[in-house]
């Protein structure tokens, strides 16, 4: 794979952190945001969050809710909660430079620790993410276990430029060895690729069927001209955000709607990774004691924003 770094030097996209000096903290923000968010969606979040929090101390001195406000719409909110915990854990300390020390911090797994230690500190640690898994599985024309992936990635790592090598592998996966229609004729490693030789590189890695469960929910938008009644979300998916009261259709939704003068205004569909939601949206006026607030000032998920857009459209 000798040509990979040359290819990367000539073809790497001019991403903001590649064309300007950025700190390890800013690199960490980029790695955390871009791992589960598409680049074009994630870039404005990266810009916004690094400007608001130029170092871990500035985040630790702010509230988690303010971080959630900046993060809303980016999805996978556990990342933001862990980032906040990480900043608080660091206190006045800088981010560690060593892989093993990075791994001890909240929200930092093997991929992120390898990325930070190699890209920011030139340490010879190989990264394995979804793109690299696809490239390596195709080159070897086999489905590789996590430990096989780690050893193959480590064997190939160019220790003279480990950070660039890791980025080159990821760039190859995202720009050339794409999930569908890989551009094998333009690939710098095509002369040694078993997947290309097989004539069907898309066979690897073997795709696992995603199980998506359908759920029917009811949302009750309690509002007046001054604002909307919001509740604090809990749980892994949306914890740390605020939102519209929701209930699963059945006794829970009966409880939510009972003894209220409600109006059904429509149904929305929303996909999470493992769940497809069908949400019947109702509106009503606040009861005494139900506080309302301006939803523009609260950290809401894209599901809640979708529900509120339906209310605005009626
Ligand atoms: S030759 Fe094709 S399948 Fe093999 S690594 Fe390159 S793009 Fe992927």
Written description of the protein model:
It contains 15 helices and seven strands. It is an alpha+beta fold and 314 residues long. It has two domains: 4-203, Endonuclease III, domain 1, CATH 1.10.340; 213-313, Nucleoside Triphosphate Pyrophosphohydrolase. Strands 1, 2, 5, 6 and 7 form a five-stranded mixed beta sheet that branches. The chain has a two-stranded antiparallel sheet with strand order 3-4. Strand 1 (213-224) and strand 2 form a beta hairpin. The radius of gyration is 23 Å and the shape is globular. The termini are far apart. The model has no long low-confidence stretch (mean pLDDT 95). Bound molecules: iron/sulfur cluster. Iron/sulfur cluster binds at residues 135, 138-139, 176-177, 182, 184, 187, 189-190, 193, 195-196, 201.
Keywords:
single chain; 314 residues; alpha+beta; Endonuclease III, domain 1; Nucleoside Triphosphate Pyrophosphohydrolase; 2 domains; five-stranded mixed β-sheet; two-stranded antiparallel ribbon; 7 strands; 45% helix; binds iron/sulfur cluster
CATH architecture of the largest domain: Orthogonal Bundle
Supply the CATH class of the largest domain: Mainly Alpha
Q: How helix-rich are the residues, as a percent range?
A: 40-55%
Could you say what the CATH topology of the largest domain is called? Endonuclease III, domain 1
What share of residues are in beta strands? 5-15%
Terminal-residue CA separation: 58 Å
H and E order: HHHHHHHHHHHHHEEEEEHEEH
Largest sheet: 5 strands, mixed
Category from helices, strands and their pairing = alpha+beta
What's the number of domains?
2
